[in-house]
Specification:
Elements: H1 7-13, H2 17-37, H3 44-51, H4 55-62, H5 65-88, H6 95-123, H7 132-156, H8 164-181, H9 190-205
Helix pairs in contact: 2-3, 2-5, 2-6, 5-6, 5-7, 6-7, 6-8, 6-9, 7-8
Length: 207
């Protein structure tokens, strides 16, 4: 989706392989700039410089900054949904195993998408009203997937919590906060971080 009056032309350009690769570079650069300087604090000139384009060429590909913000947020949330769907789809797996797998997949995304997650956490308020519901709907899908797992665990007697909604929000807040402090070359490897996080989560909800 493109938001400016040149939408048909921009969409056509973005269908070519070269433009698709360029769009990946633009989104990555925009996520880095937005996460550090904020959406409002980032200029299109800074973004153009980051990807080696003149502003006119940049606008030819992106439409406007709001379009970039929407694409960044939807891309990272939709990838998490895609990673979680096959895990949640197994209703017979032990709840602890499912929760650990969900956390592991989230951790695997951090090295590539750390800036993107920070943009989701801090910059959604800058999406205009027609666009914000699109992102909030996808976030609700993610939360619903985790809540479904927790509800199954409660029903099977594996989890002790009596409030799956609150448990979901607490776990999601924990996962989302990891993007602020986790460093890929830090003391814990990605897998170790997932195991430690899972232990903390499950110690709070296991029966």
């Amino acid at each position: 989706m493109v938001l400016d009056a040149q939408g048909d032309r921009v969409a056509a350009v973005n269908r070519t392989p070269e433009s698709q690769q360029l769009m990946v570079e633009i989104l990555g650069a925009a996520a880095a700039l937005f996460s550090r300087g904020g959406f409002q604090g980032t200029t299109t000139q800074q973004l153009a410089d980051a990807v080696g384009l003149v502003k006119a060429t940049l606008y030819y590909h992106i439409g406007n900054k709001e379009e970039l913000l929407l694409r960044i947020t939807k891309t990272v949330i939709d990838e998490r949904i895609a990673r979680w769907e096959p895990i949640v789809a197994n209703p017979t797996a032990p709840t602890a195993t499912v929760i650990q797998s969900l956390i592991e997949e989230h951790c695997r995304m951090i090295p590539r998408y750390r800036d993107w997650f920070l943009v989701v956490a801090d910059e959604l308020k800058h999406l205009p009203p027609p666009l914000l519901p699109q992102v909030l709907e996808r976030i609700d899908v993610t939360n619903a997937m985790l809540q479904e797992v927790i509800e199954r665990g409660i029903a099977s007697g594996e989890l002790a919590t009596t409030d799956p909604h609150t448990a979901t929000l607490v776990i999601m807040a924990m996962l989302n906060s990891m993007n602020r402090w986790y460093r890929p070359r830090g003391r814990l490897s990605n897998d170790q971080l997932a195991r430690e996080t899972t232990a903390v989560v499950l110690n709070g909800v296991l029966a």
